[in-house]
Amino acid sequence: MKNLFAFILVLISYASFSQNALLSGILVKIEGGKEVPVEFAKVLLLNPDSTVFRGTTTDFDGNFKIIGKPGVSLISFRQNGLKEIIMPITLKAGENEPIRVQMEEPMMELGTVQVVAYKKAPSSVAGDDARRREASNSTDGMTKEQMKSTGDATAGDAVSRVPGVSVQGGKYVFVRGLGDRYVKTILNGVEIPGLDPDRNSVQLDIFPTALIDNITVFKTFTPDLSGDFAGGLLDVLIKEYPNEKEINVNIGAGFNTATTFNKDFIGYKGGKLDYLGFDDGTRALKINPFIKTVDPALQNPVTTADTKSFNSTMGFEQRAAMPNHNYGISFGDHKKNIFKSDKDYGYVFALNYRNNNSFNDLTSFGNYFRSQNQNETELETFRVSSGKIATNEVLWTGIFNQSLNINKNNKISLGMFHTQNGISTASNVRENNVEGNQAILIKKNIQYTQRQVSNVNLKGNHTLNNWKINWTLAPTYSKISDPDMRSTVLEEVHAIDASGDSLITYEMNPAVGSQIRRIFRNLDEKSMNSKLNFSYDFKLNDSLKTTLSFGAANVYKKRDFSVYDYFFELKNFNQSSLDPNFYFQDENIWSVNNNSGVYAKGQIVPSNQYVGTQMVSALYVMNDLPITSNLKATYGVRAEKADNTYTGQNNAGTVKYNNQKVLDELDILPSVNLLYKVKSKKEGSKSQTNFRGSFSKTVARPSFREKSIAQIFDPILGRTFNGNIDLLESKIYNADFRWERFFGRTELVSASLFYKKFYNPIEIATYEQAPNEVRPVNAGEAEVYGLELEARKSIGFKKESQQHLNFTVGANYNYIISRIDMTKVMINKGDYIVSEYETRVANKRGDEVVSRYRPMFGQSPYSINAFATFINANNGFSVNVSYNVQGARLAVVGVGIIPDVYEQPFHSLNLKATKSLDKNDKWSLSVRGQNLLNSTQNQFYVAHRAENRIYNSFKQGVTVTATISYKIK
Questions:
Q1: Domain extent for 29
Q2: Exposure letters 306-316 (e unless 16+ CB within 10 A, then b)
Q3: Contact criterion met (CB below 8 Å) for 760 and 727
């Protein structure tokens, strides 16, 4: 009877519930430019007479659940200091689709009531516009919605469409014409190391857009941000868990006109795990690098064993390149009321993989200089090279994010991120050395680069009355390895045989640079990022809410860098072959028995081994102060203490550093951001005009590699980077003014003016005596100022049959002027020091007028972005066309007789079309075309009245990629 009674109660309960409707959702607002939850707000279902039928409150994350009756009802959202929202809603029996509602501050006019309701995700254009509209500082960004419409594959592709932003090589960001050292990239609010030791910033191509909710570009500084940026700070926000169960799968393949199925493509046999971005040990150094190899003159069989321990593959093979391919899967869920309590748990797991080939059949490199005869304007040739470079790149990225809402006041989140990148490169280059040791060299290289970053992000959010506390602990490990870079260089010798015919032979001649060389390079970096922030909300004169924020942060990094260099010499061995594998055949390796052949000669270069540490500790205080209902000031100060240590020595051993402090700076960084808002007086209008002003001080610090005495050689380009231990950090003073108007319907127009003053900016310069070597230098003083314009317009369709059509166009234009005072840039000429201005005057040509000023390194004088998007929701079709170009920018600063190198404009035209394949939008097909103008990436030597000469030239071809996707909700 008890069981029967219980069963009847269950049936009654089920029947009762089936006649009810369950509604859930999230309540949010825009605060400080970011979307934040509205906590403990009242959520009320109203009867037709506006009396309360049922009520609840939102939790710590703004989530709510409420049970009502099926049919049309009114729902009210109330919170002190925010406008009440009353909106109709149609409920159905059972569980309804979750909704998202955004609340706003009260209008200026008392007594008016404005009803606003959003179902936009924070990754939508509308959501991002709302964030930008209320942000304390000037920001721009790209949302998931925009990235999906343009078909951008990586964050690097996506951010290139942001006003004032250009991207070099799809990886490195320039903001307002400033290079990567002045741009900082963070992941979910915390700093992570980059994958490239040559750069200060993180490579954006490691972040697939499939994993990103949005990218925010901060263009003005506030004290709660890291102080080491001047151009911009990019915050890449990885998506958190969805509101409901969701699974996404996609598969794609791509064709490149210069690469795919090209029979001239070259590659070599690597390891079994290359397709996963790992070297399986095939390329590992199998002898102790600190034990010098034994000279064959000692007749020791160890010499043979050491030489045979190296992988015998030195050459490449010709084979057709297969199509590019990519795969992705993600799934997530949100579990409510777990453990039979009010705790909620959400998670998302995502894995993305791509495998791309690229081939440059007409790659060119060059080194040129001005003639000693100052009446001669044309450049003279030092060295020219041309040939083939082929790469196979594997990149996969995985994330696992999870969050636990312990209760309404406490939330803990754990995020894990890993990216793995493997690049296999083969090159066949013919080099003509015109000056010095004149020779024609055939250079055959194979190289593998393995890069990885692993990051764990543990953070907590807590609320106690008017206090908010958040903290973060984020350890990161990164590794960059170039195991066994193999180079075979032979001299091409032209002669006439006895019959008078031309004879070409290939010989090993060390006197002209002919050699066999293998390099093992390794970089390990560990870092720990920790942050603790407090904020307190209170009202001034019982009316306007103000927020006082303060906190501390600490970033610790340790980098261990090493290079082991091996040359292979010939003993009593006169044979030669154009096939690099010939020299590592067993019968051609030196042994005691034959006393002839190839043997390894180890060379440890002391300057290529170093250990560096960096500790940056910070304290800040900031006040978000509404002076009136229209005018708000965000002001404060940040103090950063930076300490770098260095362990290393020069090649001669005469200069040694043992954990010596080489950077010791305390920077006080003040900031003021003003925002004046003019909201539309028209009832129901979302239009708003903002006037912004910002003044701040920031810094830019040299990288580990730059502030060192390391000498790093690139065997493919034949160029060497030299560190500068005396490099100083840069101090930057910033001013920014912006007018912006938001029209609603994702429409806006804005105009910005900015000015920056640099002291000790860091640039990359050549050596006058060695044009194939570069080093970082401080360049005295510099100024950057310019104009940014942006517009976005949605064009509607009024006909009833076209009500689901949408057409949006947008463009942004940036004009930038930069100036460096060359009279304050000092150049060491050996016995004396002169200014850069003096060296240019001393080497001017004829009627050339040498200005006191030149552009900054890496600065583009202009950039243009434009796009058009058409969406037909009736049949699930969308198409986007986008265009990007930036003006010629100074890539290498010339010295003396060495002219400047400028990177030329690259006209990038891209198109993406997407079509839903079923009525439920589960299946979709997209086709994307990149570089439709078939543009070439060029860097040229540029000099007065001289023909431009090639420094680098790469032709990347047109790429067409088709992707099919499947989505389950």
A1: 18-102
A2: bbeebbebbbb
A3: no
Q: What CATH number did the domain enclosing 896 receive?
A: 2.40.170.20
* Cα of 484 vs its chain's centroid, Å: 27
φ, ψ for residue 513 (rounded to 5)? 95, 5
> Per the domain annotation, does 9 fall within a domain?
no
Q: What is the 3-state secondary structure (H, E, C) of 180-198?
A: HHHEEEEECCEECCCCCCC
Burial pattern 617-628, b for ≥16 Cβ within 10 A else e, equals bbebbbebbbee
**CA–CA distance, 426 with 313 (Å, rounded to integer):** 12
Domain membership flag for residue 179: no
pLDDT at 706: 85
8 Å CB contact between 219 and 939: no
Residue 164: inside a domain = no
**pLDDT tens, 332-343?**
888 877 766 778
Instruction: Please give the radius of gyration of the chain, using alpha carbons only, rounded to the nearest integer.
Output: 31
Spatial distance between the Cα atoms of 697 and 892, rounded to a whole number of angstroms: 27
Give the end of a domain, one of 69, 102, 135.
Answer: 102
Helix, strand, or coil here: 146? helix
Q: In the structure encoding, which two tokens stand for residue 76, read together? A: 């009210």
Residue 555: pLDDT band with limits 50, 70, 90: very high
**CATH code for the domain of 56:** 2.60.40.10
User: How many structural domains are present in the chain?
Assistant: 2
Residue 446: name the closest of 646, 686, 200, 270 by CA: 270
User: How far is 793 from 933, CA to CA, in rounded Å?
Assistant: 26
- Name the DSSP class of 332: E
Q: Decide: 351 and 328 in contact? Cβ < 8 Å.
A: yes
Is 158 inside any structural domain?
A: no
Pairing assessment for the beta strands 139-143 and 212-218 based on DSSP bridges: antiparallel
pLDDT digits (tens, 9 = 90+) for 109-123: 333 333 333 333 345
Q: Is the pLDDT of residue 804 over 60?
A: no
Rounded Cα gap, residues 172 and 204, in angstroms? 7
Of the two residues 377 and 52, the one the predictor is more confident about is 377
Most confident of 63-67, 168-172, 580-584: 580-584
Instruction: Please give the single-letter amino acid code of residue 258.
Output: A
> Worst-scoring range by mean pLDDT, 100-104, 111-115, 120-124, 899-903?
111-115
Q: Residue 751, SS3?
A: strand
Q: Look over the chain and give the mean of its residue pLDDT values, rounded to a whole number.
A: 83
Query: Quick check: helix, strand or coil at residue 307?
Result: helix
Sheet holding 711-714, edge to edge: 711-714, 719-722, 773-778, 762-766
Confidence of residue 954 (pLDDT cuts 50, 70, 90): confident
Q: Across residues 798-806, what is the average pLDDT?
A: 51
Question: DSSP labels for 591-653?
Answer: -TTT--EEEEEEE--GGG-EEEEEEEEEEEEEEEEESSSSEEEEEEEEEEEEEEEEEEE-TTS
What is the reported pLDDT for 120? 35
- Among 48, 72, 102, identify where a domain stops: 102
How far is residue 210's CA from residue 158's CA, in Å, rounded to a whole number? Answer: 11
pTM of this prediction? 0.79
pLDDT of residue 155: 75
CB 806 within 8 Å of CB 870: yes
Separation CA 122–CA 243 (nearest Å): 13
3-class SS shares of the chain: helix, strand, coil, % to 5: 10, 55, 35
Q: Is the pLDDT of residue 801 over 60?
A: no
Is 51 exposed, middle or buried (CB count within 10 Å of its CB: 0-12, 13-18, 19+)? exposed
Reply yes or no on whether the pLDDT at 803 is more than 80.
Answer: no
Look at residue 13 and tell me whether its pLDDT is greater than 60. Answer: no
SS3 category, 211:
helix
CB 42 within 8 A of CB 86: no
Hey, which residues does 903 pair with through a beta bridge? 889, 939
